[in-house]
Fold this sequence. Notes:
Elements: H1 6-9, H2 29-41, E1 45-49, H3 55-62, E2 66-71, H4 76-84, E3 93-97, H5 105-108, E4 113-117, H6 125-137, E5 144-149, H7 176-182, H8 193-202, E6 205-212, E7 218-224
Parallel strand pairs: 1-2, 1-4, 2-3, 4-5
Antiparallel strand pairs: 5-7, 6-7
Amino acid sequence: MKQYNVLKDIVLKRHEDQSLDLLSQPIDDLDTACLTHIEENGIKHALDLGGGAGKHSIRMAQAGARVTLIDRQDPSHNIQTVEEAGICSKGQINLVQTEFTDIDFDAIGTYDLVYSQRALNYLPYKDFMSLTEKLIDGLPPLGHFYLSVSGFDNEFGKTLDKRDMPLPERYGLPSEEMQKKHKIYTPTLVFKQEEIEGIMKDFGMEILSSSVSTFGNVKIIAVKV
Ligand SMILES: C[S@@+](CC[C@H](N)C(=O)[O-])C[C@H]1O[C@@H](n2cnc3c(N)ncnc32)[C@H](O)[C@@H]1O
C-alpha cells in the first residue's frame, strides 16, 4: 500500500467557519459531491467499499459521518494517525478487513450512504451483482450511492482479453504491459456507461449524475427511490 504523509496529503483543511475546504486536497468530482452531501445532510453512517489507504474514509469522517471502511487491506496506521491528531474521534472510522464476498452486513448495521471508487469491478460479475444489490437493499429511501468502476474504454480496458464478451463474461486480464503499468494482476470487469446505469436502475436507483472520466472510468451518483 502506498505510504502517505496522512496529515499533509489526505486530511482536508478547513475554512475559517470550520466548513471543509474541498480544494485543499486533490479530490475528484465524485468525492466532492459525496462530501458536500454528507456535510449538508448530516449523514450519520457511510460505507467505503475498497477504500484502500483510507483517504476518502478519513475525509467522510471529517465531513461528520461515522464510516465503515471495508477492504482486504489494513490501513489502520493511517486511521490511527488521524485519530491521534484529533482529526476524527476514536472509533469514528471502523475498519472491516475482509473480502467483499464475506461481508457480515448484520455486524455493519444500518447505513445511509455507500461510496466505492475503482474497487467493485475486481469482483466477478455474479459477485458484483449480488453485492451491489445487497448494498442498495440496505440503503434507506433517498440514500445515495457514489460509485466509480473501471471503464470499457480506459487505457487498460482497451487491452482486456475478454473485452469482446458480454458483461457477464467479460471478467478478464489487461495486457501484460497494462498489468505492470497499473499494477493490476487479477481479473477485472470493465463497464460501458450504459451498462452500469442500467444495473443501478434495475436495482431501484435513480441516476443523479453519470459521466466518464478523462481516464475512461465510469462514475455514477444514484439515489434510492
Ligand atoms: C484500485 S484500489 C482503489 C482504492 C480507492 N478506492 C481509490 O480509489 O483510490 C482497489 C481497492 O479495492 C480493494 N479490493 C479489491 N478487490 C477486493 C475484494 N474482493 N475484497 C476486498 N477488497 C478488495 C483493494 O484492496 C484496494 O484497496
